[in-house]
Structures are given as C-alpha cells and as structure tokens.
C-alpha cells in the first residue's frame, strides 16, 4: 500500500538518488554488532540493537559518538571511531542484505519499461569506501552512475552539497530529481536542494518521516515502480 500527500510529477523525473542504509540495504545487525564490538573493546556495556539503530543516519562519527554518550574527550572518540571502522570493514557483509524487491525495482526503473528510464545514484552518510564495497558485493553498483559517501564532500546530508553535485553531474534540474530515503535527513536534503522526496517506511528511521513532510510514502521497495511510473501513485 502506498500513500502520497502530494503528487510527484513522474513524467518529468530524470534522476533518482537513493540513500543506502535502511533504503537499499538492511545493515542494522552488522552496524549494531560493530558498535558493540567497539564498546566491548573499550570495556563499556553493550547496547540493544534497537537503540543503536536509532543512532544510524548521520554518518559513522555521529553513530560512535552517540553510542559513547557524546563524550567531550575527542581523542577518545577518534580512537573509538577507528576501532569501529576497522571492525566494520571486516564485518560489513556478515548479515547485511538487499531488501526484498530492491533489485527488481531498480532494474525496472533503469530499463524504463514505460519509456521513462532514469539515471540513478547513491548518496549516503556512510563512508564511501565501505559503501562502494557493499554495493559491489550485493550487485547494486551496475545500477548507479555514482556512489557518494559521507566523506565524499566537505559536508554530509542534510546539507544538500552532495545532492546538488549529483544533479549537476547528471545534467538535470532539481525539479527533475527525487531523493529516496528512510529518514528525515533524506527528506531535508531533498528540500534543501529543491528536489522531490520519497520516504521509505520500511527502513531504519521511519519514526522520523511524518514530521519531515515528504512528497510520497512507500511501504516497500516493490512500491518504487508504482510511485514513480507514469500511471501515478496509488493509495
């Protein structure tokens, strides 16, 4: 079931930009395990997976800082972040998988069976190295002309720098662009760039979406093709 408070002008859309964690992939368990490995290394108690999941979305640095309780010792935070990143690089694909329907929907959107094939890209706050490696391992990379991470630019989402760069590289206008994501961060990024926003209720941060007022909600990746097809969005 798909709900839309507004109607995206689907015939005009030429660029789709996807978030990664909670949108294309379910990485919750590997991220939680890596955070708890970091906490154990520092002789701190483990956190519940649900708590860690609520910290995801603003990049690795903020994830680690929140898990540590926002300490003032920056050297301590940097040491913790290094351990987390080293551990996560080795364990990023232990349990991480593509959400059901993602590959099929990306194939349909790219091929443009309705004559509306679009360019597609990834913009995530996860560091670009593991992001690209995950996309390659899970057969996502061929669908995207660019995969940018949280360290690809001087700022992260919700700052629109990365999205604006993708819009420029694709040679399209913001009005022709949709940002697809599972959190208010993605919606705010789209708004700041003048693009449309499609919200994924199945992701890691659905509780943040309503207040962000996206242009469209979907309940699964299978809904992407309906939401972005020339037939419009169904309720």
Descriptive notes:
Its EC number is 3.1.3.18. It catalyses: 2-phosphoglycolate + H2O = glycolate + phosphate. Belongs to the HAD-like hydrolase superfamily. CbbY/CbbZ/Gph/YieH family. It is an enzyme of class 3 (hydrolase). There is one protein chain. Strands 5-4-1-6-7-8 form a six-stranded parallel beta sheet. A two-stranded antiparallel ribbon has the order 2-3. The protein has two domains: about 10-25 and about 100-225, HAD superfamily/HAD-like (Rossmann fold, 3-Layer(aba) Sandwich), CATH 3.40.50; about 30-90, DNA polymerase, domain 1 (Orthogonal Bundle), CATH 1.10.150. The chain is built from nine helices and eight strands. The chain starts with 14 loop residues before the first strand and ends in an 8-residue tail after the last helix. The chain has helices at about 30-40, 50-55, 60-65, 75-90, 100-110, 130-135, 160-170, 185-195, 225, and strands at about 15-20, 25, 95-100, 120-125, 145-150, 175-180, 195-200, 215-220. The chain is α/β, with parallel strands linked by helices and about 240 residues long. The longest helix has 18 residues, at about 75-90.
What structural keywords apply?
235 residues, alpha/beta, Rossmann fold, DNA polymerase, domain 1, 2 domains, six-stranded parallel β-sheet, two-stranded antiparallel ribbon, 8 strands, globular
